[in-house]
Amino acid sequence: MNYRIAIGCDDAGLDYKEQLARDLSEDPRVAEVIDLGVHRGTADVHRPYPEIGLAAGESIRAGEADRAVLVCGTGIGMALSANKVPGVRATTAHDSFSVERSVLSNNCQVLTLGQRVVGLELARRLMREWLGYTFDDRSPSAAKVELLNQYERC
Questions:
Q1: Do 106 and 141 touch, CB atoms closer than 8 A?
Q2: N or C, which end of the chain has less CB nearby within 10 Å?
Q3: Closest CA to 101 of 47, 144, 42, 46
Q4: What is the spatial distance between Cα 92 and Cα 79, in angstroms, rounded to a whole number?
């Protein structure tokens, strides 16, 4: 798969975002990295996390990105923000099993990470693993994900 990946952070996740963006740009599974901010040394460095999380969710809903990686202090704020966009499923993950299940059981398009709670090398590993999973719409989990989709359409 040649994913278009949106990446973003707030000021609490900037160091990780920069490294993860480099990793994505070197990953053969990634066709495009879409940097939503924030950017070091610019006025946008203090943009609040909801702006970035919502922008990532909207980029997925609009079909401009296939997936997104978001970083803040804990990952929680970014996940909450991206999840406000209908049709988007975002999760915070701290371990390999959660990353696996986020895609295989829940078809999450957004991975959020916390720079203050996950080491950099683990964050890099989790992102690489996450890119390797694809949701099977014939799996037993597909009906559960469809229930979420139906609810959002109401």
A1: yes
A2: C
A3: 144
A4: 6
Helix (H, G, I), strand (E, B) or coil at 59: helix
The pLDDT tens digits for 59-74 are 999 999 999 999 999 9
Residue tagged active-site, from 9, 72, 108, 154:
72
Q: Give catalytic status of residue 72 as yes or no.
A: yes
Q: How far is the first Cα of the chain from the last one, in angstroms, to the nearest whole number?
A: 32
- The burial of 38, by beta-carbon neighbours within 10 Å (0-12 exposed, 13-18 middle, 19 or more buried), is given as buried
Residue 126 scores a pLDDT above 90: yes
Residue indicated by tokens 């390797």: 132
Q: For 99-110, what is each residue's pLDDT tens digit?
A: 999 999 999 999
Of 73, 84, 68, 83, nearest to 35 (Cα)?
68
Q: What was the pLDDT predicted at 153?
A: 87
Instruction: Give the strand order in the sheet containing 110-114.
Output: 30-35, 3-9, 67-72, 110-114, 90-92
Nearest of 29, 27, 94 to residue 66 by alpha carbon:
29
Adjacent-strand bridge partners of 72: 114
Contact 114, 92 (CB under 8 A): yes
